[in-house]
Design a protein that fits this description.
Order of helices and strands: EHEHHEHEEEHHEH
Helix content: 25-40%
Low-confidence stretches: 200-204
Oligomer: single chain
Strand order of the largest sheet: 2-1-3-6-7
Structural class: alpha/beta
Number of helices: 7
Shape: globular
Mean pLDDT: 93
Distance between the termini: 21 Å
């Protein structure tokens, strides 16, 4: 089994980095082959070029070797994990750019016409999204409507064929205690374990 774990946070030592480490450790401990990517540390280039803006025709071979590597890799994965903070109701720009440059037609989906229904091409049947936030849950729901839920569970992942999307928000991080963070890391580890097909865990 192959998993891709993608971290989008610019500050080393952040709680997002701690989540990334426990998820990668848990998956590898269960025998997964893990492609672990700290997108900021790797310097992933998020800017979409003009030639990459097509939505119907299959994307041309990437000139950027980093983009080519990620496209080939994501097509072979069995599970995806995304770890990032909620910034203005959006993922960080580096991850948004990764989605736009990697999940392209011919790699992640195919579309007959611009107004047609997409057919997802990814073999990954499940995904785990771990978000951090400093906005209380009630305010997030009442004022903002949880836009990241729409991004991942409605817009991006079903479009490319990922039907089983699991998402957890850890909040509020800025004022959390060491004990609370430790408990959250244990929860993230259990959720990573639940990605394995043989796992009986239903943690979400």
């Amino acid at each position: 089994m192959r998993a891709g774990v993608y971290l989008a946070h610019p500050r080393p030592g952040s709680f997002n980095h701690a989540l990334f480490e426990v998820v990668v450790d848990e998956l590898r401990g269960r025998g997964w082959h893990v492609a672990a990517h700290d997108l900021y540390a790797e310097g992933f280039g998020p800017l979409l070029s003009a030639e990459e803006t097509g939505t119907v025709e299959s994307a041309a071979d990437a000139r950027d070797p980093q983009v080519a590597l990620h496209r080939a890799e994501v097509a072979a994965l069995d599970a995806l994990v995304f770890i990032h903070p909620n910034w203005w109701g959006m993922p960080p720009a580096v991850l948004t750019g990764w989605v736009q440059r990697i999940l392209v037609p011919g790699v992640a989906y195919k579309l007959g016409t611009a107004e047609g229904e997409p057919a997802g091409l990814l073999r990954a049947g499940r995904a785990l999204v771990l978000n951090t936030s400093d906005t209380p849950a009630a305010r997030e729901a009442d004022e903002f409507g949880d836009p990241l839920e729409q991004v991942w569970s409605a817009c991006v992942l079903p479009y490319v064929g990922v039907d089983d999307v699991r998402r957890t928000v850890f909040r509020t991080v800025a004022d959390s205690s060491d004990a609370q963070r430790s408990a959250w890391l244990d929860q993230a580890r259990r959720q990573a374990a639940a990605l394995s097909p043989s796992s009986s865990s239903t943690e979400s």
